[in-house]
Amino acid sequence: MSDMVIAKLESDAINVQYEKEIIPNEDFSSKLSALREKLSNMEEYVQFQDEELRRLKEEHAETLANQQNDVSSTSAAIQTHGIGNQIMSEEYNELSSELIILNRKKYELEEKVKRLENELQGSYEKVKWLEDDQRRTGEEIWLAKERVANQDRELQDLHGQCTWLRDENARLQNELSDARKKHTEIDWSKFDEMKKIEETLRDEKSKVEWRLGEVIQYWNDAKWKIGELEAGMAHKEWLLDQANQKIFELDQMYRFRDTTKNFLDGTFLIKKQPSGDRYKWRLAMWNESSPDDLKDYRRIWFEIRAPTAKIVLLSASFVSWECFLLCQQLDNDTNRFGVWIDIPPGRYEFLFIVDGQWTISDNYEICWNEHGTHNNWRNVD
């Protein structure tokens, strides 16, 4: 019976495979559903056979147990029981073989069902692709129809333009024919008169251009002459400025000489003169040439704060550290002593002598001297 059922299932599977491409998808699905139902029934039958085989195994085990417990049974009974066991073993082997065959058939049917399902899925995808392709083809056909309609409209417009051009050409041809008819005879006398007028105008144009060139040349010459005059005036103004500057300097020098002669006559100045390979500062008596020497001098104030000092002197490099200048006590501040000195520009070092002690002032910069002590220093610009 099982062989007949399996053969029937195989036949149905072959029919489904054969009818796959010639029947609609719905019929194919129904066939596949029926085949699945038959496969389910076959599985139930196989399960029933498994249960029967298990029952036979249990009976065989029970018989073996009874055989061990019943030691006093007769040999005939043992022989009869052995024959029964042999029969049961043969039935068991047959059922096992049939079960193996059924399992193999079941596996083959499952494989066929899976293959049919895959083919069905492929058919669905192919149908979907065909539907999409049909939709795209429809869209392309619609676009092609639209393009054809647009081209038809453009063609109609071109036909209309061609018609208008033909009409316009005919109209122009008619106008040209009428113009030719009207101007068939030409008045050559007017043509000669116009030619003479043209030559006269050309001559006048040449004369005007020549005159314009002369005027432009005169204008350029005038501008060049004006430039020369302006340059000469600028040079003369510069010479005049130089002369005025010289006059001013001479006037200032004479005025300074007269002033210093009246107020500085008989005083001493600190002058710089060469002494060997270096310059040496010395006190010089005022004389007639002093104003020229004083024009570069600067009047500089030197001071120191010495609250308890009685006598404050100043010595510096501008007197070669060879003399001392007395510093006066300020009237408005008795703690400060200072002195005005006229000296030329330069860098000078100096020290104060406060009650006989060499002292530096906090008002000026400090530097080292050759004796290992400090001096004040400052620049005179």
CATH level 3 topology of the domain at 267-380: Immunoglobulin-like
Shape: flat
Tell me the total number of β-strands.
11
By CATH, the superfamily of the domain at 267-380 comes out as: Immunoglobulins
- Tell me the strand percentage band: 15-25%
Distance between the termini: 138 Å
Helix content range = 55-70%
Radius of gyration: 71 Å
Low-confidence stretches: 18-24, 264-268
**Helix-strand pattern:** HHHHEEHEEEEEEEEE
Structural class: alpha+beta
Which class of the domain at 267-380 in CATH terms?
A: Mainly Beta
Number of helices: 5
Any guess at the CATH architecture of the domain at 267-380?
A: Sandwich
Largest sheet: 6 strands, antiparallel
Average pLDDT: 76
InterPro entries: AMPK1_CBM (IPR032640), CRP1_MDG1_kinase (IPR050827), Ig-like_fold (IPR013783), Ig_E-set (IPR014756)
GO cellular component, one term: cytoplasm
GO molecular function, one term: protein kinase binding
Domain AMP-activated protein kinase glycogen-binding: 310-380
Notes on the protein architecture:
This protein has 381 residues and is of the alpha+beta class. Among the domains are: 113-186; 187-264; 267-380, Sandwich (Immunoglobulin-like), CATH 2.60.40. 66% of the residues lie in helices and 17% in strands. The chain has helices at residues 2-19, 25-69, 75-182, 188-263, 290-294; strands spanning 268-275, 278-285, 298-305, 312-316, 325-326, 328-329, 336-343, 346-354, 357-359, 365-368, 374-380. A hairpin with a 6-residue loop joins β6 and β7 (336-343). α2 (25-69) packs antiparallel against α3. Mean pLDDT is 76; it is low at 18-24 and 264-268.
